[in-house]
Hints:
Layout: H1 2-17, H2 23-42, H3 51-81, H4 84-87, H5 93-122, H6 126-146, H7 155-175, H8 177-189, E1 194-200, E2 203-206, E3 228-233, E4 238-244, E5 249-252, E6 282-287, E7 290-295, E8 301-303, E9 308-312, H9 330-336, E10 337-341, E11 359-367, E12 370-377, E13 383-390, E14 396-402, E15 408-415, E16 418-425, H10 432-445, E17 447-449
Antiparallel strand pairs: 1-2, 1-3, 3-4, 4-5, 6-7, 7-17, 8-9, 9-10, 10-16, 11-12, 12-13, 13-14, 14-15, 15-16
Amino acid sequence: MLLLLLFPVLLFALPWVIPRRWLPACGLTVLYAAICLVIDETRSQCAGCGGFGAALGWALFVLACGGFFFSFVARLAVLFFSKKGEVAPGPTAFSSDTTTALAALGLACVAVWQTVVITRYWFDHGLWIHGALAVLALGWVALGRLYREERGKHGLRIFSGAGAVTTVCALAWSLQMPAKAIAAAEEAAGGKPYCLLTSGRKGLRPVRDRLDLSGFVMQDGPVSPRHATLAIGESREPVWRYWSYRRAAFEPEFLGGVLTCELRDNAAKDLGWVQAKVQPPESRFWLAGGQWRIPAEYRGGARDRPPAVTFHAQGKDFQPLPASTQKPAVMDLIQSRVSVTLCDLRMLHVWQAETDANHKVEPAGMEAGLEKQSVESRGSSRKELQYAGRDETGRISTWLMCHQGGGTCRHAFRREGVVVEFQHSRNQFAQWKETQDAAWKRVKSFAVTWPDAMPQSCKS
Length: 460
């Protein structure tokens, strides 16, 4: 404990006790160590990672790093402005080469990181990612061959060699990961059928080949909360696990998931190294105990917690968007989006208002067989109108809101414990019953196996 408390003092004193020639190498080493510790700590997941001990550790770490770099800069300033610095011995060949190699190490790590990010964004395939890294390694080697240095100087070759070795080591780490992931999947499955999902540009997707289980493909991100997930058992109620690099194993999952892959025996063992990327003609998955199949032209998707199916449709019969070689405009996708929540929400829509501290809802008559309600929101001088329809129990089962002066209505309804939400033209307001029937017919057409039992309720 005493050594831990003295750690900031030791790091603060370090720049003043080492020879000047070793300052750059020492500074880079401490910087890299600090970055690795921060990355390791921020990505750790454990029940006891918190409290006073964690706060004290972070405080000591920040104090130690801040003290070192303040002392480091102060030492450099003293050497720069001191007259003794003019006659002080220069760096030896070994210390200079060490600094060069450390600088190349950091630059190579940044280059590998950016290469992986760019190739994942544009191609989303392990073959492209690792091919780009191989080209990067060759580029480092070529850098050392382009220029001839003076006799006795090897700085450029050391720089390019360190960069090439770093890139090759990163590539080797990534390519040895599929064997570990496959062994871990077989062990976690315990002889039961299973399948694997890995991180992709649009979220978790089925694993196509062994390269999809490589280290640089199995990476979480904004749309993928996990590096990879494993589904085991039955399609209706699979057991979920997620990949942990820290433990090199699939750990029990608490987030759930959408089953978009087929459960099979020895699913990972049968994978080849390279499989061509094929655009599926439809979106198929299991969710909430049911199987769903959405044709590609509807741009279907799904999410869990709460379980919801999404697709894009337009018109009174909820037909797909027109086929085009160009990507639809963002506004067109928003207006054509249909969301089907596979559980019973208390509030049909996030904009549905009831009298509370922020809203004042008052009756305003009837229209088209629906209760017309005036909604006054706190902080807004404009009143909105919402419409509600009730079932035989008196519960709201239909909700609409059409903004005054606007041409679009937001519409949501509840049927068989499922909540459907979409938008349509103001001109369709009077035909709200027919619109709901058409939407429900389209939803049912996507269900290959309708869930046996819907969850009773879920959070809005």
